[in-house]
Amino acid sequence: MPGNLLRCYRGGGWPPHLQSLSPSASRRSAISSSCLRTTFDPAELSERVGALEQEMGAPGFWEDQERAAQVSAEHARASRRLTTYRELERDVEDLEPLAELAEEDPDIASELEEQIRSVQERLDQLEEQRLFSGRYDTGDALVTVNAGAGGTDAQDWAEMLLRMEMRWAERRGFDVELLEASPGEEAGIKSATFLVRGENAYGLYGAEKGVHRLVRLSPFDAAHRRQTSFAGVEVSPVVEGIGEVQIDDDDLQIDTYRASGAGGQHVNKTDSAVRITHKPTGIVVQCQNERSQSSNKAEAMTMLRSKLLELEERKRREEIARERGEAQDVNFGSQIRSYVLHPYSMVKDHRTDYEMGDTARVLDGDLDGFARSYLLKAAK
Questions:
Q1: Helix pair angle (4-12, 25-36), 10° resolution
Q2: What pLDDT is recorded for position 265?
C-alpha cells in the first residue's frame, strides 16, 4: 500500500528489519515521538494549493497588490511542503526493497543507511514546519543584539553573538542585512540590528530571544581570569503594512548624527544616520546603513513598527500565561542559554536542557538543534 512504511515510521518508529541500520535508538525515539505529533494532511494541503491557484487565476487578482503578494507567498509555501511530502513518501517506499537487498550486499547496506538518514532529516523539516503557527511566524525578522553586564568582555561577547546569529541565518539560506551597529569603547559592539528575510525567519529566531551567558578566560584581563559576560537578543516581526501599527508623530523624538561605522567619505561628512525614540514606551531604534537621511528614517520607522508590534505580542503572551495560571517568563530578561568555554566546553539551553560540546561549531552558527528542541517544547 502506498505510504505504508511512512505511516508506520510516523506512527512509532522504523520497522524491526530497518532498526539495525538506522541511527541510534535515542535518536529514533526522539524523532518517532515528534512524528507522532505531526499534523500533516497532504490531501488537505493539495486542496488548499488548488484553491490558491484558482484565486490567483481569477480576473483582477493583481489589482490588489498586497493581497496578491500574500496569496502568492502562501501558495509557494504550501506547494513546497506538498512537494517535499510526496518526494519523501516515494523515497520511504523504496526503503523496504532496498533493505532486503542490503541483507546480502554490504555496499547496499551503506546506501540504505544514508537513505534512512536523509528521510529522517526531511521528516524533521516537515515537523518543523508544523511548529510555525503564530500570526507572524512565517515572515521576516528584525534581530537586535545588545551587550549586557560585563564591560569590554560583554561588548566583545555581543559581537561574537551577532556573528553567530547572522551565520545561522546564512546557513539556513536566508538573506541577511546588517542595519545598524554601535561599536564598543575598546572592542566588540554595544548593540547591532540586522534584518533576516526568508520563510519562517521570525518563527525560528523566536527561539533566540533572551539573555545569552558566556563563561571564558578573559582576553582583556592581564591576569587572564575567568569572566562571565551577558548579551541579549531581541526579535521582532517585520511589518509589511503601515496600518498594522499606528504611530503618533508627537510621540517621536528624531535625532540625526554621523554614522560611526565604515562607509566612506559620504558617511563621515553628513548627518545621515537617524535615531528615533518612541516616548511612550522608551523604545529606541537607529539606522545608518543607507546613504540618505530619508532612507535611514524610513528604515528606522519600519524597525520601530516591528518593535512596537513585538511589544504588543509580548503583552498578549503574558496575558494568556496569566489566564492559564502559568508562571512563564516571556520577557527579554530571561537567561536562556550558557556558553561555557572554560574550564570545560559546553553550550546548554536552560529551557530544554539541549546541549552541545562543540562550542566552536555552535558559535559558527549551528543552532538548528537548539531551535528545534525549544520549538517542540513550546508547541506542547
A1: 100
A2: 41
Domain 244-322 CATH assignment equals 3.30.160.20:
yes
Greatest CA separation found in the chain? 78
Contacts of the segment 185-188: beta carbons below 8 A, 24+ positions apart: 185/152, 185/155, 186/152, 186/155, 186/220, 187/152, 187/155, 187/156, 187/159, 187/220, 188/147, 188/152, 188/154, 188/155, 188/156, 188/157, 188/158, 188/159, 188/160
Q: Which CATH architecture has domain 4-130?
A: Up-down Bundle (1.20)
- What are the pLDDT digits (tens) for 309-355? 888 888 877 776 666 565 444 344 568 999 999 999 999 999 999 99
Q: What is the CATH number of domain 141-179+197-235+327-379?
A: 3.30.70.1660
pTM of the model: 0.73
**What residue has cell string 562571565?**
228
Question: What pLDDT is stored for residue 329 in this prediction?
Answer: 44
C-alpha cell at 143: 534581530
Tell me, yes or no, if the two domains 4-130 and 244-322 fold the same way.
no
The separation between the first and the last C-alpha atoms of the chain, rounded to the nearest angstrom, is 32
